[in-house]
Every structure is written in C-alpha cells, then in structure tokens.
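WARN no homologs supplied; continuing
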Amino acid sequence: MLMFIKLILGHLIGDFILQPTKWVIHKESNKITSKYLYVHVLLHFALYMLLLWDLSLWKIALVIAMGHFIIDLLKLYSNSFFKNKSIPFFIDQGLHVVLIYCCAFYTNLYEHTLTLFQNLDWSLITAIVFVTYPSAIIMGKILESMSNQIETDHKSLPNAGKYIGIIERLFVLIFIVIGRWEVIGLLIAAKSVFRFNDLKERNNRKLTEYILIGTLVSFGLAILAGLLYIS
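OK structure emitted
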C-alpha cells in the first residue's frame, strides 16, 4: 500500500504541480511531436524513482512512465471527439490510477483486488449513490407541480441547482457518518446566508417557499440515507 501511495503522490506532483500550462497547450497543439510530452514523461519517471528510493524498482517506474506516455498520447488524439473536455480528462486520470494500482500490486493483483471488493462498505456506497442523482430525480418529481409556478432565471448556470443539491447532500451524509450533526446546522445556515440577498432583491414569496421546500427535502433525503446507514 505504501508503494501505491508514493506512486500516486508522484503522479499528482508530476501531472498537477510540475506541469505548467504552457506544456499542456504545447502538447495539445503538437501532440506526439511535442518536446514537453517527453519531458513530462521523464519527469514522472524521475519522481517515481525519487519517491520509491529503491533502484531495484526501476522497472516498475519505467512501466508506469511508459504507460503514462501512451495514456497521455491517447488523450491528446481523442480530445477532438469530446465536446465536454472534462470527460477525456477524467478518463485519462482514471487510467493513470488503474495503471499505478496494477503496477503497485502486481505480485498479488487478483488477491488484493478481490479482498478490496470484499471489504467495501456496500451500505455506505448505496447511501452515497442514493443522495446523488436518484435523490435529485426524486426531488424533481416532488417539486414538479411547484416548479411550473416559478419564473425561470436565465442568469443561472445550467443544472447548477442540481449539482449544488448533490454536493450538499454528500456533505450531510458525511457529517452523519462521522457523527457531527452540529455541522449540518452550520451548512443550512451558510446556505441561507447565500440565498438571503437573492431572495430579498426579488421579493418573490413563491420563489422563497419553493427554495425552502427544496432545501428541506434535499436535507431530509440525505438525513434519511444517513440514519438508515448508521442504524
């Protein structure tokens, strides 16, 4: 596990801290002919060796570095197929983590992976999944008849309310799991402060009631999921 953590650290430093924006732009423009692509890979190899601090592990560092090169190259040439540029980014990062995991536990990869899945807290995973999109859909159904009476704010970001709700429910679930119920009150208070000026300027009672009901339903679903998990 220590090797895996060190390799992940090396990846984070190499991909996010020691990779200037200039390198990223140059790689996207020149792809396989970009000199910074090769510098980037060599930097990763050096970071892995430095953090592992064991010359006998050079083959692992080399395999990960070469795999990093291939994954980055695939990303550079597939970027144009995605309208949402965050998709290839997350796919790229996911593949890097999988590669590092396979190399770190190559001696007992199957056994370690099997043990990892067997030890997963499936109840917690179910609760986490529930408070994301399923809860958002449930809220949409509950508030559907009310939303038709609210004027649409075209200045709002697309789906911003949905993502805010998902994030706040995840926070609520986390606080319940770790037993910090008082923080949930602070979270409600913080959200109320941010909403106060907006509601005050509009002076729209229907909107105020709609937001209040939506907030309570959102927190209620998260609390329900948390209570079912800890019970």
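The longest helix spans residues 205-230.
OK
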